[in-house]
Each structure stands twice: as C-alpha cells, then as structure tokens.
Design brief:
- The protein has about 550 residues and is of the alpha+beta class.
- The chain has 3 domains: about 5-150, no CATH class; about 165-295, Methane Monooxygenase Hydroxylase, Chain G, domain 1, CATH 1.20.58.410; about 305-545, Alpha-Beta Plaits, CATH 3.30.70.
- It has 16 helices and 20 strands.
- The strands form 5 sheets. It has an 8-stranded mixed beta sheet.
- Helix 2 (about 90-105) packs across helix 3 and helix 6 packs antiparallel against helix 8.
- The longest helix has about 40 residues, at about 230-265.
- It is flat.
Length: about 550
C-alpha cells in the first residue's frame, strides 16, 4: 500500500510516493503563492487525515478537497472502501485556481472551482487535464477520480482556517464590529461569526445533531417501511434536519475560506484578490441577517402557507373600515414578499369596510412570518365618519391558520359531521354571483366550527375553498389541544376591545405605530399600512425565542 503527500520544493509542488526517486510535477502555477505546503494525504487503510511534515500522528480533519488518482497505483477499488494510490488536493488549491482563472481572464469550467466556492460542492477536476498534459506530456500524470467531502471522526471536527482559526475563535477574539462601510475583514468576520453562533443557538444545535443521529438509526432499520406513514414522517424530518445542518456548515466553511484568501492576498500583496474577498465577506455579512431570520422559522408548520382572517371589533362602522385597512395591509405585505394572495371569504360592512374577511397566502414560510400578527390591532384617528371630527379608537382582530399538506392533516372529517348551507353571495360581484346560490357555508357539527366562501363563481369552487379553510381550522384546533396551547392557537375573537391589543396605530394627535409586545415602533404609519411589516415581524420572532434554550 502507498500513500501520497503534497510537498513544496523550489516553489513547485510534487507528489511523493514511498519511493523517493519518483516525483510527479504538479501544476506549479496553482501553488506558487501558498505560504505553507498543504501536506494532506489519504492512506489506503485509514480515513482521510492531515499529515504534518514532522513525525507526528495524523490529526482528524474535516473539509472539502479533491480525491485524485496517481498513475503509480492506478487501481482504485471504491466499492470495497479501498483508496489505493490516492492523494487529496486541498480546498485552498481550488480557491487559488479560481483566482488564477479570474486574473488571467480564463474561462472557469462549471463543476470545478465555481461550484465549490458558491455551493460547497466539488465537481470533477477535468479542467486540470490540459495543463497537466502540457507539463508532463501525458494525461496519465494526474487522472481525475471523484470529488469527496471527508470527515475524520463520527461527528466532524470543527472547521478551521489554515492557521486553525474557528468560528468560536473569532468570537472569542472580541474584535470590534464596525459599520458595514468600513473595509475591515475582522469586523465582517466577527459579525458573521456571531450570526452563525446565534443561528446554531436558535436551531438548538446539539439537540439537532443528536436527533439527526437517532433518525439515521431509525432509517437504517429493515422494518421501517412496514409502516409507510411513519417511515415517510421519519424520512421527511431527517431530510429537513440534514438540510439545515449542511446549510450552516457550508456558510461556516465559506467564511473561513474567505479569511484564508484575505491572508493569502496580503502575504502576496495581491490587492485585487483582497478586494474581492472583502466584498464577499460584506455580502456574507448582509446575507447572515436573513439566515438568522430563517433560523427563527424552525417550527413544524412555519414553512406552510396560511390563511389570514381579519374581523372587525368594537367601534361600529369605524372598526369595519379599520378591518378593511388591516386586510389591505396584509395583502400588500404578502405581495412585497412575493407570496400569492387569494381572497377566500369577505363580508362587507353596512356602510363601509368589512365585518370579516379571509385571504389565502401561498408561499414558503408564509405562516412562519404571519403568525407574528395574531392578536388585536388598535387604531386611533380622527374618524372620517364623524361629522364632528372627533378622535375614535377602533379594533380589529387577526387570526393566522397554517395550511398543512395532505399528508399532514390531523383531523379526518366525516361527511356525516358536516352541515352544508348554500346562499346567495353578497356584495359586488356581477349579476351571476348575486342571483344564484353559489356561496357555501360548511359547519363541522361536533365542534361548531364553520367556514364559508362566496368569492368564486361556481358553487363547487366555493365548497372546495370552504372545505380547505375548515380543514385548516380543525387541524389548528387539534394542534392546540395536543400542545395545551388553546389560548395561543385559537385566540377568541369575541373580546376585541381595549386592553387586548398587540399593536397600536396612532394617526392623531401624533403619528406612530408601536408593538406593545416588543416595544418596537416606527414614526411612519403610512409605510406600515402599505405593507412594510417586516420590522415588527422580525422583532417579535426574535423576542419570542425560548429564553431557557440550551447553550451550544
């Protein structure tokens, strides 16, 4: 068995076998600016390790690299786990190769360095072959094998830079966080590292890894698929957790690679490379805030679409008008975020506004975001319906219901438990809508919960939409019962009055919108009423984190 190590000599790297007389030249232009030799190797009988030039035992490692076959030992039996004649091309080499192509305006073949940098996935290194041929006169000098992500232990060792700097080490350094406009890599790195730490905390990182191991054990059981429903649930959860873990690790690895490149650029006085790396860190810093928010939406139903219901409260016509304003606010918010919006049900007020309305919001994490809006919303303004121009206070209640997938519904509805009523649709809608009994109201007799729809042209479409709303309401009720959180999930709409509000919208005598749960406030109510709700949603989701969650 033989192993191969990359060694630097005379500004060139060679692949050394156990026979010291054999040296294979290896793309010197790829490595000329590396300050330290990337002495990484793969043993035929061991897992991948870092090898130091000094006679010390191998140290487990984790990261990305290329597994490359050497002509001295061309046989590779991957099916049996044997890795004869292989050596590892380190990730830093790939980064340097990408910079070489960029600096020399050469086309970078997708699947090589590009995918590695952007997606942390390595493609086949076929682009190396022409250069190898020019150097050695033969493709057999360095033949591509396959890409590999390697781990030296069961739970991979924490990623680090070439100098051993980790994310936790960056945080411990306590570097000052400057404004984004400041071109300081330590400031950017510290901000990103803190975001990664916070993301792991929100995901309950240790528990996530333990849960992932347990799910892996269950997936390997031979009798798992005897119960397809249970197996599907296990498989979906495993896939979801694996995706979250990989995304965090990839983000962490990207940060450390950019730090390596900045240090490398400064050693070589490469201003262009340093500038590119600083810009990449700045993009990561801005992107990290969005990733923090996504980590907040880790609940079982957060990724679902949802229904948003608005009901007018105390205040008569003024409150009905306010309810219509609230509903319009959510429509505009959903459109801002790129969600689809469909009006499911709407009951108009006698003079103005609406008594109640329901919209369907389609999009990933629609429920996760919108759940922050559940509660009573209070408006203070000079009423346009008061001839004396007096100040009025109005209320509207908001409920948000997740739309579970067909395989996730928790309540089976029997046809015998339903009472279906048909009636003429009210409000403007055309001659056909108002003269036929196309509107449908469905009541679930055992619970008394009902749903109605009158916005579609046909009775069949209205019935289908009403059933979807009813199913979601019953599912929500069941979830609340199981979690013993009825007050949170099925908030009563009967006490829509003073003292129960979550947010106040004041238009007179001053102008301000304030969330009473988080004290977050803005002085531009017009922008809020036009759908600019993300600040309120983000502050609530952050404040609602479990204060007793475990440390990392």
């Amino acid at each position: 068995m033989s192993s191969f190590i990359l060694e630097r000599s005379y500004n060139r790297y060679s692949v050394l076998s156990q026979n010291p007389r054999i040296r294979v030249p290896l793309l010197s232009f790829l490595f000329h600016s590396l300050s330290e030799p990337p002495t990484r190797a793969i043993h035929s009988s061991q897992s991948p390790h870092f090898l130091d030039s000094s006679p010390k035992p191998p140290v487990p490692c984790s990261g990305y690299g290329f597994l490359v076959r050497n002509p001295l030992c061309p046989t590779m039996k991957t099916s049996t786990g044997s890795q004869n004649g292989l050596f590892l091309l380190p990730s830093l080499v790939l980064l340097q190769y990408r910079h070489f192509c960029s600096s020399n305006k050469k086309e970078l073949v997708p699947g090589f360095g590009f995918h590695f940098l952007e997606k942390n996935s390595i493609g086949f290194c076929t682009h190396l072959l022409p250069t190898v041929k020019r150097i050695s006169g033969s493709h057999e000098c360095l033949a591509p094998s396959r890409s590999v992500r390697f781990f030296g232990s069961r739970a991979a060792v924490e990623p680090s830079t070439s100098e051993g700097l980790t994310v936790e080490g960056i945080i411990a350094s306590q570097w000052t966080i400057l404004d984004e406009s400041e071109s300081d890599w330590k400031s950017h790195a510290t901000s990103i590292a803190q975001s990664i730490h916070l993301i792991k905390k929100r995901l309950r990182w240790k528990k996530l890894l333990v849960r992932l191991e347990l799910l892996s054990v269950q997936l390997n059981k031979p009798d798992l698929w005897d119960d397809p429903i249970h197996a599907g649930k296990i498989s979906r959860e495993h896939g979801s957790l694996t995706g979250k873990m990989k995304e965090v690790k990839a983000f962490e690895q990207e940060l450390l690679e950019h730090i390596d490149m900045i240090k490398l650029a400064r050693e070589e006085n490469d201003i262009e490379l340093e500038s590119e790396s600083l810009k990449a860190l700045l993009r990561m810093r801005r992107n990290s805030k969005e990733k923090e928010l996504e980590a907040l939406l880790a609940g079982e139903q957060d990724s679902c679409s949802c229904f948003i219901e608005v009901q007018a409260g105390a205040g008569g016509t003024e409150s009905m008008d306010w309810a219509a304003m609230v509903m319009q606010m959510y429509k505009m918010w959903a459109q801002r975020r790129g969600f689809g919006v469909t009006v499911v049900d709407e009951m108009a007020g006698e003079i103005a506004g609406i008594k109640r309305a329901t919209i369907k919001v389609d999009g990933e994490f629609a429920f996760g975001y919108a759940k922050a809006e559940v509660g009573v919303h209070r408006l203070v303004r000079i009423s346009p319906f008061d001839s004396n121009k007096r100040r009025h206070t109005s209320f509207a209640a908001v409920a948000v219901i997740p739309i579970l997938g067909d395989g996730s519904t928790r309540v089976q509805i029997n046809e015998s438990d339903l009472r279906i009523e048909r009636f003429r649709a009210g409000g403007a809608g055309g001659q056909h809508v108002n003269t036929t009994e196309s509107a449908v109201r469905i009541t679930h007799i055992p619970t008394g919960i009902s749903a109605s729809c009158q916005n579609e042209r046909s009775q069949h479409q209205n019935k289908s939409s009403a059933m979807a709303v009813l199913q979601s309401r019953l599912d929500q009720l069941e979830m609340a019962r199981q979690a013993q959180m009825n007050a949170q999930h099925t908030q009563s709409l009967t006490e829509i009055t003073w003292g129960n509000q979550i947010r106040s919208y004041v238009l007179h005598p001053y102008r301000m919108v304030k969330d009473l749960r988080t004290n977050y406030e803005v002085s531009d109510p017009d922008s809020v009423l036009e759908g600019d709700l993300d600040g309120f949603i983000f502050s609530f989701l952050s404040a609602s984190l479990d204060k007793d969650e475990d440390d990392l």
